[in-house]
Design a protein that fits this description.
about 500 residues, globular, seven-stranded mixed beta sheet, alpha/beta, about 35% helix, about 20% strand
């Protein structure tokens, strides 16, 4: 048997290929950023062709860096930025339009109209999601209605839709020459088009958005030995390697954090924050602004569900300090700058650049910095940005406890921001529970590798995967209850100041 498993991690800002050994250790990686296309306020796009080119490059380079060949891989998994919508011509492989990114808010009028009509309640019941700009259904509708020729092409069977997992999979398996048009249950559950109980596309939901069923990929379990095909020898690896795992990025991180039992949760700190709580095979419908979603499904087993709190802007708030305000040169400098002050001096930064996601779901919100005085400097702003990451996570934890009755004893964390020790300490302080980071912090790619390896027998079962998880660092709360309550009360006041800013038609 080959000694390694590979994982394509197609994210919001970059694509990488990581290779893991049997102990779950990283042995090689390569990563490349792609362009963030911002045509106008609220619009965020990616070039799908650039993403595919980056995928080619990172797969080849990771193997070269590890002094490996494709035949050393037992299987490949794919994980991806969810909800980001690609529509392409399967005859040529050319996208009809740029990928519309999950952060994009151009479909706010579509979401608002669904709620006004009462169709939003049907979407909540069947898909577990509120009608929001976040999800794929409205983005497909926008492309069908606004890009010349796409509606006609779709009705003739000449337009495929997929989140970026589909786009990468289709290209890896041959593209116009027999590429596999498939997705998994976790990605399908983010479209507003799949019924959570049947795990199939729902005709009523498709009708709400005017989406022809012929556009849609086949829905498969997240881990399966045959469902996703093999890489074509004409593609980057020049070998027919089985692709046996596909998971949306946050579900992949949940698998990588070995949260396989009901009540176990993780929080991923990336462009946004995503807190996922495993609820087992039970569908828990949120009453407090969370999403009901599919956590994963392994071959031969029922789907496992989750509650998720999705936060649009966390790590990207640090990028904003770097790229727009230019008060830091890199992400690591945000910690150094924030440490120049003892606290935020009473200012709050609510980075509602794309509205507010969970638990508020307010597309009319916009970013605000409140409580400013002449006394404040860039150190206070940097610290307020870190606190914003943590307060938004507390909003979600509070909602999760109300929905599930589960009180977190510890929060497992992963993602790039976890390298910021100060931010993780603030997170423990704001929540009042310990925060734990694993040795392998890149759990998104690891989870995709786990899903792929389980399908091929590379790993025996989830009990074996649990033995690989090791804690790297733990942060214990240091604030008093009074500090914690006072800080959170100020945050809630600041959030109120961001609402009713943008007009939603």
């Amino acid at each position: 048997m080959a000694d390694f498993v590979g994982a394509v991690d197609q994210g919001t800002t970059s694509t990488r290929f990581m290779i893991f050994d049997h102990a779950g250790n990283e042995v090689a990686r390569h990563q490349l950023e792609h362009t963030q296309v911002l045509p106008r306020s609220g619009w965020v796009e990616h070039d799908p062709v650039e993403i595919w080119e980056r995928t080619n490059s990172v797969m080849q380079n990771a193997l070269r860096h590890g002094n490996l060949s494709a035949s050393d891989l037992a299987a490949i998994g794919i994980t991806n930025q969810r909800e980001t919508t690609v529509v392409w011509d399967p005859r040529t492989g050319r996208p009809y339009y740029n990928a519309i990114v999950w952060q994009d808010t151009r479909t706010d009028s579509i979401a608002a109209a669904l709620d006004r009509s009462g169709q939003g309640d049907v979407i909540r019941r069947k898909a577990g999601l509120p009608p929001a700009t976040y999800f794929s259904g409205g983005k497909i509708q926008w492309i069908l209605e606004n890009v010349d020729g796409v509606r006609e092409a779709a009705e003739q069977g000449h337009a495929f839709f997929g989140n970026t997992d589909c786009w990468v999979l289709w290209n890896l398996t041959g593209g116009p020459d027999g590429g596999i048009h498939a997705t998994d249950v976790t990605n399908a559950s983010r479209t507003m088009l799949m019924d959570l109980e049947t795990l199939d596309w729902d005709d009523e939901l498709l009708g709400f958005f005017g989406v022809p069923r012929s556009m849609l990929p086949t829905i498969n379990p997240s881990s399966h030995p045959e469902a996703f095909g093999r890489t074509r020898t004409s593609r980057p690896l020049r070998e027919a390697i089985p692709i046996t795992g596909v998971l949306g990025d946050q579900q992949a991180a949940t698998v990588g954090q070995v949260c396989y039992a009901p009540g176990e949760a993780k929080n991923t700190y990336g462009t946004g924050n995503f807190l996922v709580l495993n609820t087992g095979t039970e569908l828990v419908r949120s009453q407090h602004g969370l999403l009901t979603t599919v956590c994963y499904q392994f071959e031969g087993s029922p789907a496992v569900y989750a509650l998720e709190g999705s936060i649009a802007v966390t790590g990207s708030a640090i990028q904003w300090l770097r790229d727009q305000l230019k008060i830091i040169g890199d992400a690591a400098e945000s910690e150094r700058l924030a440490r120049t002050v003892e606290d935020s001096g009473g200012i709050y930064f609510v980075p509602a650049f794309s509205g507010l996601f969970a638990p508020y779901w307010r597309s009319d919100a916009r970013g605000a910095i409140v409580g400013l005085a002449r006394y404040h400097d860039n150190g206070h702003l940097a610290r307020a940005a870190l606190e914003a990451i943590c307060y938004q996570s507390r909003d979600v934890v509070e909602a999760m406890e109300q929905d599930s009755g589960v009180h977190l004893d510890v929060l497992k964390v992963d993602g790039g921001v976890t390298a910021n020790d100060l931010c993780m300490q603030i997170q423990a302080d704001v929540l009042g529970v310990p925060v734990s980071r694993p040795v392998v912090a890149e759990t998104t790619a690891l989870g995709a590798a786990y899903a792929a390896g389980l399908a091929t027998g590379f790993w025996r079962d989830t009990d074996e995967l649990r033995t690989h998880w090791q804690e790297s660092k733990r942060w214990e709360p240091q604030w008093s209850e009074e500090q914690r309550a006072e800080g959170y009360a100020g945050w809630k006041k600041a959030v109120e100041r961001t609402l009713d800013w943008a007009e939603v038609k």
